[in-house]
Amino acid sequence: MPDHRGHAGHGCSAIIRGPGALCVPRLLASRGRLAILLQTSTLEALVKRYDLVTFDMGYTLVYFHPSDLELLLSAYHAVGLYPDPEALRRAQDLAWQEYNEAAACTVFEPTPERDREVDEGMARKTLERLGLYKPHLVEPLVAEIKRAFGAPGTIRLYPEVLDVLSTLRARGYPLAVISNWSWDLEDRAKEAGLAGYFDVIVASARAGCDKPHPMIFRRTLEAMGVEPARAIHIGDSYEADVVGARGVGMDALWLDRGGKGGHPDARTIRDLTAVLDIVLGRVCKPVE
Hints:
Elements: E1 6-9, E2 12-16, E3 27-30, E4 33-36, H1 40-46, E5 52-55, E6 62-64, H2 68-78, H3 85-103, H4 112-130, H5 135-150, E7 155-157, H6 161-170, E8 175-179, H7 185-191, E9 200-203, H8 204-207, H9 214-224, E10 231-235, H10 238-247, E11 251-255, E12 268-269, H11 273-279
Helix pairs in contact: 2-5, 3-4, 4-5
């Protein structure tokens, strides 16, 4: 991240380092100390730390209600299957873990057909782990899962989201979504009332790779015309969001809503209100 602290310079009382190398001469000596006579809003404008703020979608901006497990169970019940809820959770988690382990080095042709194949593969592997696999069940199960998760009102915003996005937009920050999501991400963003806040919405299904693959981050940066060092990404997955963003030179915040911890190297926040403090430069102490 560029150094924007003040430094003494020739012909100026202080130099704000960054794009344009702006000179701030309005300093007065008072009892041996320098006082900067600038309003906070003016200083923020001069010392803009980022030119782009990007967000993950699921469990960063939005969540599902009923829960994802309840929605999955309803889909299984609709095709006549009644797995133990915890067994279903474990089977689904293992299937996604296997998929995500390959994501960092996998590139694919972005088509709706490929997106459907991923859904079918996930359903098949989950059924196999549950001991319930039968070939004829895969297609109707995928259809029921899509119906359950796509039902009106199932996707909800976290309480602070609109205030954070509105504030960033009002301050002139371009915003983007970078999410491991299926073909319908833009439709779901519209449904949640988010589309108007973002300049670019990038779904992995349409990008040809999943986070943490660097290509999905680089394509977003290129679309926005922003250098990696001038962008920050926020998400709830340490591996996909923090490791992925850092891998291309972006700054990153790990959103740990549940307070689980476990990644001391990551700048960690508990909700998105902290993004305003960090992006707008309103805190000087490290994030806890």
